[in-house]
Amino acid sequence: MVARSAPSPADVWEILEEVRDPEVPVLSVVELGIVRDIAIEGDHVTVQITPTYSGCPAMHEIERTVVGALASRGLVAEVRTVFSPAWTTDWMSDVAKEKLRAYGIAPPGPTTEQPLVPLMRRAAPVPCPFCGSRETETRSEFGSTACKSLQVCNACRQPFEHFKAI
Ligand SMILES: [Zn+2]
Fold this sequence. Notes:
Layout: H1 9-17, E1 35-41, E2 44-49, H2 58-71, E3 76-81, H3 94-103, E4 105-106, E5 136-140, E6 148-153, E7 159-163
Parallel strand pairs: 2-3, 4-7
Antiparallel strand pairs: 1-2, 5-6, 6-7
The structure holds zinc ion.
């Protein structure tokens, strides 16, 4: 890309495809589905991002990385945080979910699968990303981040994280 010339939306999406999510480095912010929209005016790019979980501490990190990635291509970037509608794990592509599984994190299921009545709510077992067994149990609702729960597989004895569906 020639510096100073206005980038095309495809250029900008391509740059954003290289920005990893700090909490799930196997996924880009685009694959995660948090980039809502982009706007280009000359060499100024505005990126609209919806945080995964409100108050997710990674948001500032993502913002810095996005601005830095675009700046390295000579673009002035600004990140706008959009809270509505709220991000849902349904925005994550199937490819992204498969990458999560390959990385050892059980991907979120479709949010519609979750029961609507809280009292009846018993979480269905999360399939183990290593051996596929459903003989798993939740060790903690919170793993390394609030976005993930900590699970353990009783079949292969591997602990793993589950990206919770929201
Ligand atoms: Zn297992």
